[in-house]
Amino acid sequence: MTRPTAKEIKAMADAAGVPVDNDVAARIANSVGPAFDAFAAIAGTLPFDLEPSTFVVVQTEKAAR
Amino acid sequence: MKTEPALMSLTSVARAIADKQVSSREVTQSCLDRIARWQPHLNAFMAIEAEDALKAADAADAALAKGARRGVLHGVPLAHKDMYYEAGKVVTCGSRIRRDFVATTTSTALQRLKDAGTIRLGSLQMAEFAYGPTGHNVHYGPVHNPFALDRITGGSSSGSGSAVAARLTFAALGSDTGGSVRMPAHFCGVTGLKTTMGRISRAGAMPLSQSLDTVGPLARTAEDCAVLLRLMAGADPADSTAISGPIPDYAAATTESIRGLAIGVPNAFYVDDLDEEVASALDATIAVLRREGANVVKVELPDQRQLSAASQLVVAVEAAAFHKRWMIERAQDYGPQVLMRLQNGLAIPGVSYLEALRWRGQALAAHVAAVANVDAVIAPVSPVPAPTIAESDVGNSPDAEAVIQRLTRLTRPINYLGLPALSIPCGFTRGGLPVGMQLIGRSFDEATLLRVGAAFQRATDFHERLPKLP
After folding, report:
1. Closest Cα to residue B128, out of B160, B103, B93, B175?
2. Roughly what angle, to the nearest 10 degrees, separates helices A54-61 and B360-370?
3. How many other CB atoms are found less than 10 A from the CB of residue B418?
4. Is the model's pLDDT at B455 over the cut of 60?
5. Active-site position among B30, B95, B156, B211
6. Hey, CA dihedral for B249, B56, B217, B225, is it positive or negative?
7. What does the pLDDT average to over B318-325?
């Protein structure tokens, strides 16, 4: 997973209906970049049939020691 | 009664009212007197409802005289973070946008405390839309730390931390999405409980991130938090994420010894790059726990930076989605920093957001495996004691996100995992600033955390220290 560029962010914001100017897009790229970098090792590696609801299953099954 | 009633703990004052050693009016008046003295210095309250509070106190006293005790907190006055809806009351959420918003429903957590007999003192300040870890608020001014007025309280439950520390309320609801209960507890020297995701209904609480938001109390002791948790926990038809099942007797847990419990100390991340006095407080806390009979062992946790990153991706998208309409229609009414952080969510693709959510179960399973041999993990809440209000007032400057992430570095991973964590006061710096530690537990095992916290508080007096009026 690569961090989005300011240009890409501007396009995404436009598509979301919340347009931002170039300076804001650049600032956002700088703010979110570290999160993308830190998550890069996980992104694209998850098994096919893993659902978000797995969290609740693990939470309740593993609650007891 | 010789003791100023407002200085008592929640459980003590509730007992004193029930035993008619003190009236609800005397207790409420005592809190209002302190509020009158402290509020000009702290800015902790959003609204003070003195007249209504005294009327409610008189009604509580009259009911008690007739033998009609409403619940275990009958006649106890409280105030809460101004994001818990109460029908007919203005709930600002710390914002300009909701300055005049009048709730039409009452939040489940608040209703359950009302059902237990509490009465309302007013509402407490907070970071705008609970999206800020410092206690700054451009619309209503910063909340001040009672132990050093030029210092931040932490946020987003800034008024809750400040008001509980100054003994203006016996306890207060906060919310914790990335550290918003634990940070004010740490910076202000009070006890704060971030509950397990699903432990307390969020119905009627302002949302920030539906995957990570949790309701939790700030109070003076672990025992007080235990009482409040018992009252609020459990299933709720209005919130499908609130789990059913038995609710432990948390207060009973606080009376148990911790002899033989295993406490884990992370060997990395949580102990890296700490302020020297925070590191010393951690060592001293570990020493107390050992003296009380706990076995303290090192634990190696999975990469916490990945958890933190996943947390950021989730919060950013969910917050932006909640706020999208206002971002379009009322962008000018947000504070610059909050708008800046909301805009971050526009930059995260849907696939990345869902990957962050899909990984959550695996990440929790890995954490559970890593801590299989311990009952709780201890770690600092923040790497530093309270910064000054001036130095942390970064607004929407280019380095603002980095400052925010540094302050919340040690709390965010726990929100992503949905785990409970109890912040307890465990020391003071040489300059008199409180330092807190978080005890991190297993899902739905708040009882063990409260047990350890209470044992620590029986052995120390950090939670009893009072700030002094300037």
Report:
1. B93
2. 20
3. 24
4. yes
5. B156
6. negative
7. 98
Q: Give the CA radius of gyration of chain B.
A: 20
- The separation between CA B251 and the C-alpha centre of its own chain, rounded to angstroms, equals 18
B276 band by pLDDT with thresholds 50, 70 and 90: very high
φ and ψ of B189, to 5 deg: 75, 35
Which of A8, A34, A39 is facing B310, going by the closest CB pair? A39
Give the number of residues written for chain A. 65
Active site residue B157: no
Q: How high is the pLDDT of residue A2?
A: 81
For the cut 60, the answer to whether the pLDDT of residue A65 exceeds it is no
List CB contacts (< 8 A) between A59 and chain B: 196-198, 361, 364, 418, 443-444
- What is d(CA B335, CA B330) in angstroms, rounded to the nearest whole number? 11
Q: What is the CA radius of gyration of chain A?
A: 17
B14-47 pLDDT, tens per residue? 999 999 999 999 999 999 999 999 999 999 999 9
- What is the reported pLDDT for B256? 98
Residues A28 and B343 sit within 8 Å (Cβ to Cβ): yes
ipTM: 0.95
Catalytic residue of the set B9, B24, B30, B81:
B81
Report chain A residues whose CB lies below 8 A from the CB of B401. Answer: 30-31
Q: What is the pLDDT of residue B245?
A: 86
Helices (H), B233-303: 250-253, 276-291
Task: Give B60's contacts (C-beta < 8 A, 6+ positions apart).
Answer: B17, B24, B70, B74, B75, B117, B119
Nearest chain A residue to B325, by CA: A18
The string of pLDDT tens digits covering residues B123-179 is 999 999 999 999 999 999 999 999 999 999 999 999 999 999 999 999 999 999 999
Q: How confident is the model at residue A33 (pLDDT cuts 50, 70, 90)?
A: very high
Given the residues B23, B157, B162, B180, select the one marked as catalytic.
B180
Active site residue B81: yes
Q: Are B198 and A59 inside 8 Å of each other by CB?
A: yes
Q: Rounded to an integer, what distance in angstroms lies between the CA atom of residue B79 and that of residue B166?
A: 13
Interface of chain A toward chain B, CB-CB under 8 angstroms: 1, 4, 8-9, 12-13, 16-18, 20, 24, 27-32, 34-39, 41-44, 46, 50-60, 62-65
